[in-house]
Amino acid sequence: MDGARRLAGRWRRGAADFSFRIRLHPGSPQLNAAPADQIRLLDVQALDTRLSQLAHKRTTLPEHEEIQRLEADLAQLRDLLVAAQTEVSDTAREQTKAEQDVDQVRQRATRDQGRLDSGMVTNPKDLESLQSEIASLAKRQGDLEEVVLEVMERHESAQERAVELGGRVESVGARLQEATARRDAGLEEIDGELERVRKERETVSGAVPEDLLKLYDKIRDRENGVGAAKLYQRRCEGCRLELNITEVNDVRAAPADEVVRCENCRRILVRTPDSGL
């Protein structure tokens, strides 16, 4: 009977110890690191978070969208300006042709009127034909002059449109240049801070044990950029979930140099004086 009790006791202790190991680091070998190194890991995490924020800020500057919109507007305005300038050229040629047609009809009418006024045409039939042609030419000239006026109006309208579009192209181009300058200044500032934070991260991470940093980087790549989280008032700051009493007891019982993991998000849990243990 005593042997059975001792065997049962050993089984319960072994099961509890196995359960403890599974809760803290299931499927992974035990890792130990000095508490100061674990806390230093939070500094690395803060710097990595800042790097992620800066990278996001770099790609989401409001000037990016503004520049894209202005570039689209400018391209459209330039197309419209080219079309207006083409219309100016086309109507100018059309006006010249219409004015030439009017001049030709006018010259012919002047010539016929001269023949009529000279008295050289005496044959009644020829006289009647000449008078009819002069009347026809007068009507033709009037029609052509109407065409000239219509073309002139279209030409002037095209010129005004081209001038207006030219002004708008210049205005949008200036706004695009200004937005580009603001974007470039913003990128330069962000890149400067990125370089500073990268150097600081290199310095801080260099003081973290290699195996601990390797585990942290592996988890961070898998868990949306967060590999280590502070245990604050019994809550994991990574997943924002509070540890249950069993988990709290397991973490409390773990040696100070044991690297523990959150049961919920699997991130490294860093214990501090305000962990609430």
UniProtKB/TrEMBL annotation:
Domain C4-type zinc ribbon: 235-269
Domain of life of the source: Bacteria
Composition-biased stretches (Basic and acidic residues): 90-115
InterPro entries: CT398_CC_hairpin (IPR056003), Oxidative_Scav/Glycosyltrans (IPR052376), Zf-RING_7 (IPR003743)
Chain ranges of the CT398-like coiled coil hairpin domain: 44-223
Region span, Disordered: 89-123
Gene3D superfamilies membership: 1.10.287.1490
Protein name: C4-type zinc ribbon domain-containing protein
Organism classification: Bacteria, Bacillati, Actinomycetota, Actinomycetes, Kitasatosporales
